Amino acid sequence: MASLGFENVSKRFHDGTLALAQVDLDIAHGEFMVLVGPSGCGKTTLLRSAAGLEEITSGEIRLGGRVVTDVDPSERDVAMVFQNYALYPHMTVRQNLAFGLEQRRLPRAEIAKRVAATASTLGLERLLDRKPAALSGGQRQRVAMGRAIVREPACFLMDEPLSNLDANLRVQMRSELKLLNAKLGVTTLYVTHDQVEAMTMGDRVAVLSPVSHPNDHNLQQCAPPAELYNNPANLFVAGFIGSPAMNFVRARVERGGDGPELWISGLPSPLRAGARVAALRPGLERWQGRPVILGIRPEFFSLVAVGQGDLDVDVVMIEMTGADGYLHFELPVAPGPIEIGLAEETIPHRRQQVTARIEPKLLPRAGTRVRLAIDFARTHFFDPDAGLAIC
Amino acid sequence: MRKGKHLLRTSLIYAGLLLILLVFVGPILWFILLAVRPSETVFAVPPVLLFKPSPAAFQATFIDPGTNRHQLFNSLIVAGGAVLLNLPFSFPAAYALSRFRMRGRKNIMLWYLGLLMAPPVAFLIPYFVLMSRIGLSGTYLAMILIMQTITIPFSVWLMKSFIDEVPVELEEAARVDGAKWHRVIYRITLPLVRPGLIVTSMFAFVFSWNNAAFPLVLSNQKTATLPIGTLSYFATAGATWTFIGAAAVAAMLPPMIIFLVLDRYVVRGLTFGSIKG
Amino acid sequence: MSNSAIEHGPALALVASAARRRRRLFPYLLIAPSVVLLVAVTIFPLFFALKNSFFFWNLQMGPEPLGFIGFGNYQMALTSSVFMASLVNTLVLTVSGTVLEVLLGLAIALLLCHALPGMSVARALLIMPTTIAPIVVGFLFRYMYDPTGGLIPWLLTAAGVPIPKVGLLGSGATALPSILFADMWQWTPFCAIVLYAALLSVPQHVIEAARLDGASAWTMLRRIRLPLIRKTLSFVVMLRFMQLFNTFDLVLVLTRGGPGSSTRTLGYTLYQQGLVDFNIGLASAMTWIIVIMVNALIGLYVLFVFKDWE
């Protein structure tokens, strides 16, 4: 068991694409660290460089204090679980599990013991003599996990191991993995594109974004899930974490009677944020008279009676999932792109869709006009150019 | 340090590659040189590498008196004819084997394969006797017919793999749109398989062109193909090697060019398309 | 409405089942033309040969078979020293050729697997020997083996290797190996390219998993790559075996079976008997002996190797 560290790691592929730029990340002993981000953000490349399957252009990788940047994958004492499992198709489950141990010249008795123990941990006892082709997706996934576990390595590397499973199985395996990690306590680096998976599984989550310039950084924020959710460092993280996604609205900040006033173009009157916000977000002072981006999560909205609240809206559409209800409405928006970091969404028409979370039994009909209140104390503010959070 | 090990390994690989190319491509170049050598340098010891190339051999074999020119055309006719005859027979078979889940499909395909491996000389003799009796010995037709034992099995295998790649859904969509089965094949499958047809035909052409056993037995003076014509040079005392070289180069070049042009299909053709590890 | 269904029911069923039968037979119909043509060109002559094998028939003595001699031809063939020598030569050539070509081809394929710049050009060039007509390869090697000034004797003497005075093709000890070498020159690249394609098809992730498991280069080859290309490997072995078994063109051009019978192959002996000596009866018997042998060999091989295929 060891810690894993990346120090100023950069990687440029032979064809010129820049995958990683100035990545600094430290994973503690026994920690379950999740790398999450959209495709192309470099998370898989970073994982594979930890394994030694990709060579980095500059920087250092440390495993348990030892520098392993130039060490061959077979000598790093890491185990990897591949997205499509990469089981040896011509070997039985037993042979798949034993292979890595055989390469390390472990005595037969020891190998048999470990294989049996791992098989029982993962419920694979009855499958030991079958070949991968005769297994279901979930079973194959467990064998892939078993192959990693049986080696008792310093570190686990997992490349989207659950993404090929169907939805129910995925949820089940998520909790099984967490339990396993608690039991074994092995340092784990886990890659996924699914932010729900990241939030539920990680001790800490590192959000990565694609880079195009050597001066960029892939790493946007690395923090425990709650921190990411409640205090996103920038627009990218805020928009990526949380489902349904945070709503982004452009507004101009003006000083008002009691607290900042937020002017949304197209709306006749401003939203009054309240004095508490001025205290909570002192940085907002410097943004007087300038446009900012408001980050309002769907649950910051609430349905109120006429005369109260902040906003009159026409309900465009409602959705009900059973436990949750969502109300969609539109806000006018000034022409120009709103960068959310995931993809540039230039809104050609001058209306923007906003989602509010409402208790199902209170959901109004589509087409009605309702009044909403916004919890400004929790609302996030972002710099529209650099995307950083304004605190 | 790691870069050093890398460099050593890379140089060794390139050295090995160079050696391999020297061994396998070198003799071909040597043979091509033969066709343009002045006759004194043919067997000079030590071998002469630099000389003034002369087209005399080509002149003699193909232009004046041009004994091999005629055979060049015969080769073209036989190989071309073999390809033309091959297609209407092998395409339907390939289509059937690809699209229909027939009983005994595996056995049928293995039967075709077995035919390819049968010793050609074995049925050559009775075939020759039969053809002589019918009076077809020495005709192009006789040669073209027996070439089918090589071209059809190979074409069926290769074309099947090409047809496999055309999604069935396209044909099904056409059928739902009201087209009858023959229209479907003609308007949908064939155009999409066209590159496959071209590749298969070129392989068939090359195999027919390169075949010596069948023309050896079944052709006469008038219908001899290029390689057979070249054999006669050995009969005369003191074989005129430059002539042999010229004729051989003419026989070598078309298949070589075809294969180089079709390089990306080569591997597929050589593995008969459907044998995967 | 329902009335007519009951009335026309049985008739409809008949029509339906006829249509179904037609549909089921349809694919066989598509295959039929090629099968018929092939049968006409191969099986029919073969049965003609079967008939002839029981007669004494030499075209030089007359255009018709001369007399029924039962298994006489077969007896003559099986006791003929020439035929037996051909059998031995053919087997020696076939087995050693297959083994050498596949092993060397595998080595070259492994070399090609290193993705370095220029590899694809090398691979495209390596095709060339295989594209040449076998008979032309014969010419090439006859030129290169020539004792007076051929490239190969010159290279060998320069390297200090002794060469028989009558030349490589003229000496009983070196003639067959020389033919083998010519065949290897032509077909080793073929094996290399086919095996290279198979090696490429091994999933990259499986190789990476094995690397992480600590597999050495030798282990990687023996326990991961070779088992996973088993089908193609078997196929190549079978293909080369059968083609080597039928070696004819090279013998025709290089040695004509000599010196003595040291390079007579079955194919060449058959040609000699039937199309040079015109002994049709004997040649037909030989044909059938060879056909039975070949079928038995392929049959056994297919049974063991291809039993769980497609």
Key structural traits:
heterotrimer; B: about 280 residues; mainly alpha; MetI-like fold; 2 domains; about 75% helix; C: about 300 residues; flat
Biggest beta sheet summary of chain C: 2 strands, antiparallel
CATH level 1 class label of the largest domain in chain C: Mainly Alpha
Largest sheet data of chain A = 6 strands, mixed
Helix segment tally of chain A: 9
| N-to-C order of helices and strands of chain C | HEEHHHHHHHHHHHHH
Individual helix count of chain C: 14
Adjacency order of strands in the biggest sheet of chain C:
1-2
User: So what's the overall shape of chain C?
Assistant: flat
Structural class call of chain C reads: mainly alpha
Low-confidence blocks of residues of chain C: none
CATH superfamily of the largest domain in chain C: MetI-like
Strand content of chain A: 25-35%
The total beta strand count of chain C reads 2
**Distance from first to last alpha carbon of chain A:** 38 Å
Biggest chain pair contact, residues each? B-C, 94 and 95 residues
Characterise this structure.
The complex is a heterotrimer of chains A (391), B (277) and C (310). Chain A is α+β, with helices and mostly antiparallel strands and 391 residues long. Chain A contains 9 helices and 22 strands. In chain A, the strands form 5 sheets. Chain A has a 6-stranded mixed beta sheet with strand order 6-7-8-3-9-10, with helices on both faces. In chain A, helix 2 crosses helix 3 and helix 2 (93-103) runs parallel beside helix 4 (137-149). Chain A starts with a strand and ends in a 9-residue tail after the last strand. In chain A, 39% of the residues are buried. Chain B has 2 domains: 2-60, no CATH class; 67-270, MetI-like (MetI-like fold, Orthogonal Bundle). Chain B has 12 helices and no strands. Chain B has helices at residues 2-35, 56-63, 69-99, 105-117, 120-134, 140-164, 168-176, 181-210, 213-218, 226-235, 241-261, 263-270. In chain B, 45% of the residues are buried. With 310 residues, chain C is mainly α. Chain C has 2 domains: 2-52, no CATH class; 75-304, MetI-like fold (Orthogonal Bundle). In chain C, 75% of the residues lie in helices and 1% in strands. Chain C has helices at residues 2-53, 72-79, 81-112, 119-126, 128-131, 134-145, 151-158, 172-200, 204-212, 217-228, 230-245, 249-254, 266-276, 280-305; strands at residues 55-56, 67-68. At the A-C interface, strand 6 and helix 2 of A face helix 9 and helix 10 of C.
